[in-house]
Amino acid sequence: MGHIKQHAEMDVDGAMLVEGMPGVGLVGKIATDHLVEEFDMELYGTVHCDSLAPISVYHEGERELLPPVRIYAAPDEDLVALQSDIPVNAAAVSEFADCLVGWLTDEDITPVFLSGLPAEKSGVPELFGISTGDAGGLLEELDIDLPPENGVVSGPTGAFLNEAGEVGLDGVGLVVQSNERFPDPEAARVLIEHGIGPLTGIEVDISELVDRAEEIRKQKEKLAEKMRQAKDEESSKAQPLRMYQ
Amino acid sequence: MGHIKQHAEMDVDGAMLVEGMPGVGLVGKIATDHLVEEFDMELYGTVHCDSLAPISVYHEGERELLPPVRIYAAPDEDLVALQSDIPVNAAAVSEFADCLVGWLTDEDITPVFLSGLPAEKSGVPELFGISTGDAGGLLEELDIDLPPENGVVSGPTGAFLNEAGEVGLDGVGLVVQSNERFPDPEAARVLIEHGIGPLTGIEVDISELVDRAEEIRKQKEKLAEKMRQAKDEESSKAQPLRMYQ
Amino acid sequence: MGHIKQHAEMDVDGAMLVEGMPGVGLVGKIATDHLVEEFDMELYGTVHCDSLAPISVYHEGERELLPPVRIYAAPDEDLVALQSDIPVNAAAVSEFADCLVGWLTDEDITPVFLSGLPAEKSGVPELFGISTGDAGGLLEELDIDLPPENGVVSGPTGAFLNEAGEVGLDGVGLVVQSNERFPDPEAARVLIEHGIGPLTGIEVDISELVDRAEEIRKQKEKLAEKMRQAKDEESSKAQPLRMYQ
Amino acid sequence: MGHIKQHAEMDVDGAMLVEGMPGVGLVGKIATDHLVEEFDMELYGTVHCDSLAPISVYHEGERELLPPVRIYAAPDEDLVALQSDIPVNAAAVSEFADCLVGWLTDEDITPVFLSGLPAEKSGVPELFGISTGDAGGLLEELDIDLPPENGVVSGPTGAFLNEAGEVGLDGVGLVVQSNERFPDPEAARVLIEHGIGPLTGIEVDISELVDRAEEIRKQKEKLAEKMRQAKDEESSKAQPLRMYQ
Amino acid sequence: MGHIKQHAEMDVDGAMLVEGMPGVGLVGKIATDHLVEEFDMELYGTVHCDSLAPISVYHEGERELLPPVRIYAAPDEDLVALQSDIPVNAAAVSEFADCLVGWLTDEDITPVFLSGLPAEKSGVPELFGISTGDAGGLLEELDIDLPPENGVVSGPTGAFLNEAGEVGLDGVGLVVQSNERFPDPEAARVLIEHGIGPLTGIEVDISELVDRAEEIRKQKEKLAEKMRQAKDEESSKAQPLRMYQ
Fold first, then answer.
1. Contacts of residue C151 in chain D, CB cutoff 8 Å?
2. What is the complex's ipTM, to 2 decimals?
3. Is D14 exposed, middle or buried (0-12, 13-18, 19+ CB in 10 A)?
4. For residue A50, what pLDDT is reported?
5. Which CATH architecture has domain D3-244?
6. Which of C166, C222, D19, E76 is most deeply buried (CB count within 10 A of its CB)?
7. Could you tell me if residue C92 is left (phi over 0), alpha (psi between -120 and 50 degrees) or otherwise beta?
């Protein structure tokens, strides 16, 4: 069975989690990676599911090997982040969702799930918010937009939302218009400025995201390409219901 | 194991259920969606099977996320509806049938399963009725036609009927001639007017179905296309036995 | 687990069963369907295996839905028939064989398994008989021919014979030369006249088979086509060992 | 689970078994079939594994149906033979190996596993012997050659040797140069004359093998063709390690 | 379940293990094979997992058959080596990793996992070291380089490192630049001289590796070709994270 292995003692009870699984435009991953770096978040734990790829990841200038899916925390900000270096294969999605949502429930953490919605944007990407359990009120207070049409969230983020709904966990989903083909740091910026920031009450410096947008696009080009070719179950994505069907 | 999670306290004991899984012409889905809307039916529960796609659905102007297969009820009309936004994959069909029929048995609900039969129609689509358990009498009283030739019902509807027959649940199957390639609101209208209406004793206003036929055809074009390409197990369909073999 | 659900109280103890799974030339199915019709056999029970296609079958002018594999009986003739509307997929073959042979053993029924052997025929199709357990004597008494060369029976009929042999059930296999590509009512006639008739001691009127041969060929063309393309495990067939290898 | 069903009471305790699964050049099968015929060996038992093809085999002029993998015995010669009419599919290989080696251990039988090694031969095919457990001494006494280079035995014979080694059963492997594409009765003759004969101490008349070589080649052409196209796991074969990798 | 079968009584407690699964440039396999030969290491045990290919390996001039994955030991040098003649298929990787790491933990052995990193080399191949548990200190003492950029280790070696990290076993990973297409004895030499030698404190004569480089390249060409075409899970490889994604 999947489980989360805690690496450091940190109090994350009642915190909010930002989820960064790869998907359309890599919007969730870019936003989450930015937060991990910006707040110098510490490794809280690692995620272990039988069907996650059994690989080992290393980082520049560091000896320690890590598994590809990890949880970071900034306890002072009541902030937790789910970071992944790899897509999750279709077989792992449900097991992973069970395991993550179980842990969120135990730790009383409110998740903020992130997804791109492929769109030809004009001006600032539009953002809307959806919810499971009783988290709808959080979105109302902040005047985050309602869904403009019927739609579906698939991929790991869809599975997390589905599982959260089934067990009644309060959770939020933020959906932002995104470039369908390339990494979209601009959409990630909107997620942070208009969604994650207000929801968590944390002020986030997004200048790096803006200044380094081109560099991020290049660096993540290959992963974005991989996600574009991934199966529906493997890439987080929101879509109008009529397009999904 | 698959299960049905109840969301609201409603008395559905002894009601009739209308089943709207996608299939040929989307006749069952269009009829069921119409009833859900027309009677402003409330969410009674959601269906959870391990092999159903773990996605999450949202609706225009609403925060709440829902799973893709749901049960609605109009207790005053003794009416229940099974609504699905997605095809059911082949692996889920049997588990889903077990779970649904078990619940129908427990709640003493009489199901009305709906299926299209691909045909070149001339005039009003023809309708006939078949049954499991002792429900044949219901059809006799209403003078609903008998099958004009040997045939087979496959897909989710076929699996529901098969399971209902195995456990001896009283159930009805309504089969209507349908366009094989496109959404067929006209066939759905016949299902309601000549089948569901008489069976349930409910008067249903079908003017929307008639007036908005073109719109429905467009809106559901993509799903109809998907069902046409689906495997036999995934798309509800009736066929003459000689064509099925 | 597979099981047989009894629908009517009939005494079939000590009867003989004729098996009509689809295979080369549909010889077993045509012969069995003819017997069911000719003797107006009644539904005795239905066969339920997890891996049989979960579909539902209806018949002209009748309300009652039935599963695709069924057992009929004519108790006065001590005759039972296994009728199938569908091929059995490869995954179901072994489970089905276990379940059928277990039931035959419990009810003390002697099965007569039927198979075509693809051949360019000249004159009346040749027939030979093989056996499991101690049923060889039955064939000797009737002077039914011995196999003219080494061979193998595959498909559902092969699995039934294999299982019967393993548990030591007395069973008979009748193999008849058959057209490889098309439904072969003539071969089915030989099975009945020179095999099933003598074995069961029942006089069977085969005029319908002769008169309606062309009609049967047309009606079952599609199924015969399907069987020709089926995998080895799904289509009953006898072959010389050198051709099978 | 796989098991061996005993058909006749015979004392095979302490005997030697000759293994004739199909593989390169069909050398093991040809040698084993020859011994079964030459010594008029009797049916001792049949092999039943869930993943062996559920087919039924008949022989010219005989009523009795048999499963495709069988064990014959000539108790007076202390000789047992494993005869197979079919290749073993990949899924069955390990289960079959477990089951056969377990039985050999219980009955205290020393197996002689047979395999061809594809080679361009000049003159008499070369033969060498390998072993598991403590059977190496048997080969030493008889001056059977050692392997001329590093190599690997795959297919059913490889699985038998692997399993025998794991449980510590004394077993012998005889590897003979063989034609890679066609049935090779000449290599089978060498197996018998220079390997099986000396090991078992039985004098075997091989004149039939020599006289009927052409006929055997023709008769088994189709099976040899099948084995050439089989997956590595399904066709017994020895190869130099550098070729296998 | 996978297990390691001990063949000889040797004290390996507290030793270091060198891992030689095939991967990019076969660097780990070439280094490990060299050590086994150079120190005339003895067979300690054999590795048995259900999903490892059930084949049997023989060596020139020796009777004894062996399974394809084996452990050798040189107790005087406190050295253990994992030698494999075959790639490990994807299904076996996790089971194999569980089984190996469990045994390493029980025997208190520190593993040195080896992997190539595809690169256009100029001059001596670069080497860096990574670690699990508390083994980072070993690398620090020896001034082995840190990773120059973010990266991922996949294949069996990645699975071993992943599992070692999960259970907290102290383990070392050595990554060396390697030719991507051909066996790379030069990279293997660097692994030994600059990594394994210093870590184990053993002086290793590498003249054979240098003198026989061309021969080794030829001999292992086919396996290197196979590894190049293997799936990610089957071939040990390090890569920059941006290339892996």
1. 57-58
2. 0.94
3. exposed
4. 82
5. 3-Layer(aba) Sandwich (3.40)
6. D19
7. alpha
Q: Which two tokens stand for residue A220?
A: 């993540």
The token pair at D141 is 């006494």
- Does residue E145 belong to the interface with chain A, where contact is any CB pair within 8 Å? no
Instruction: Dump the DSSP string for chain E.
Output: --EEEE-S----TT-EEEEE--BGGGHHHHHHHHHHHHTTPEEEEEEE-TTS---EEE-TT--B-B-SEEEEEEGGGTEEEEEESSPPPHHHHHHHHHHHHHHHHHHT-EEEEEEEEE----SSPPEEEEEETTTHHHHHHTTPPPPSS-EEEEHHHHHHHHHHHHHT--EEEEEEEE-SSS--HHHHHHIIIIIIHHHHT-----HHHHHTHHHHHHHTHHHHHHHHHS-TTTSBEEEEHHHH-
Amino acid A121: pLDDT: 86
Helix, strand, coil share (%) of chain D residues, nearest 5: 40, 25, 35
Q: What is the DSSP letter of B143?
A: T
Q: Is B86 helix (H, G, I), strand (E, B) or coil?
A: coil
Report DSSP state, residue C52: S
Rounded average pLDDT over B41-46: 97
Closest CA to E160 of E118, E132, E187: E132
Residues of chain A with pLDDT under 70: 1
d(CA D174, CA E26) in angstroms, rounded, equals: 32
**Distance between CA atoms of residues B117 and B25, nearest Å:** 9
Note whether E64 contacts D243, CB cutoff 8 Å.
Answer: no
**CB < 8 Å to A67, chain E:** 162, 165-166
Token pair listed for D179: 């034609």
Distance from CA of A5 to the nearest CA of E (A): 8
CB contact under 8 A, C63 and B130: yes
| Dist CA B33 CA B70 (whole Å) | 11
Structure tokens at B95: 């588990």
Name residue, tokens 């007395």. Answer: C170
User: Does E1 score more than 80 pLDDT?
Assistant: no
Q: Average model confidence (pLDDT) for chain A?
A: 94
Amino acid of residue A219: Q
Residue B245 has pLDDT above 80, yes or no: no
Q: How far is CA E70 from CA D152, E86, E92, E106, in A?
A: 14, 11, 15, 18
Query: What are the tokens at E243?
Result: 């290339």
B163:C54 CB<8 A: yes
Contact A156, A203 (CB under 8 A): no
Residue E142: φ, ψ to 5°: -95, 5
pTM for the full predicted model: 0.89
Closest chain E residue to the Cα of D148, Cα to Cα: E60
Backbone angles phi, psi at A229, to 5 degrees: -95, -5
Q: Residue E153 — very low, low, confident or very high, per pLDDT cuts 50/70/90?
A: very high
Residue pair C97/C171 in contact by the 8 Å Cβ criterion: no
Residue-range domain boundaries for chain C = 3-244
Helix (H, G, I), strand (E, B) or coil at D83: strand
Closest CA to D158 of D189, D115, D121: D115
